[in-house]
Specification:
94% helix; mainly alpha
């Protein structure tokens, strides 16, 4: 059987004193250290989660911004293509209008040159007719001389018309 002697009593007191000393100087600081370490670790985990959430949100915002920039770039490209088509059509229309104006001017110049040429031919014919009449009046011609004079005048007219 177990005897309860003084040694047993001192061992219980030693264990209680040791427990109290350990509780005060070992368990308390270790528990505080563990609690602080747990809080620190939980804080790091929370910060990491917040940073991850912020990074995820930033990535989504960046992707949204990039998609918006791509959409705007596509719109700008489409506008540039439309503007190019419009300018091309306008330039073609202007070129056609300028060509039509040139053709009109050329036609007008040709008509004016034709009118001048006809006027010059009429003037020439009138001058030749006057000269022929003067020659006829100056000399009394027979039929052969008269025919020769007319043929000569017509030849001059043809030469003047060719030149």
């Amino acid at each position: 059987m177990i005897e309860f002697g003084w040694t047993y009593f001192f061992q219980i007191i030693n264990i209680i004193v040791l427990y109290l000393l350990m509780r005060r100087y070992l368990f308390g600081p270790v528990t505080n250290f563990i609690n602080k370490r747990r809080e620190y670790t939980e804080g790091l985990i929370n910060e990491a989660n917040e940073s991850f959430a912020k990074a995820k949100q930033s990535r989504e915002e960046s992707e949204a911004g990039l998609n918006e920039a791509r959409r705007q770039a596509q719109v700008l490209v489409e506008q540039a293509v439309e503007h190019g088509k419009t300018m091309s059509a306008e330039m073609a229309e202007r070129a056609k209008a300028e060509e039509a104006a040139r053709m009109e001017r050329a036609t007008q110049e040709i008509e004016e040159a034709k009118a001048r040429a006809i006027q010059e031919v009429r003037q020439e014919v009138a001058d030749l007719s006057v000269k022929i009449a003067e020659k006829i009046l100056e000399q009394n011609l027979n039929r052969e001389a008269h025919m020769h004079l007319i043929e000569d005048a017509l030849d001059r007219m043809d030469d003047a018309h060719v030149n």
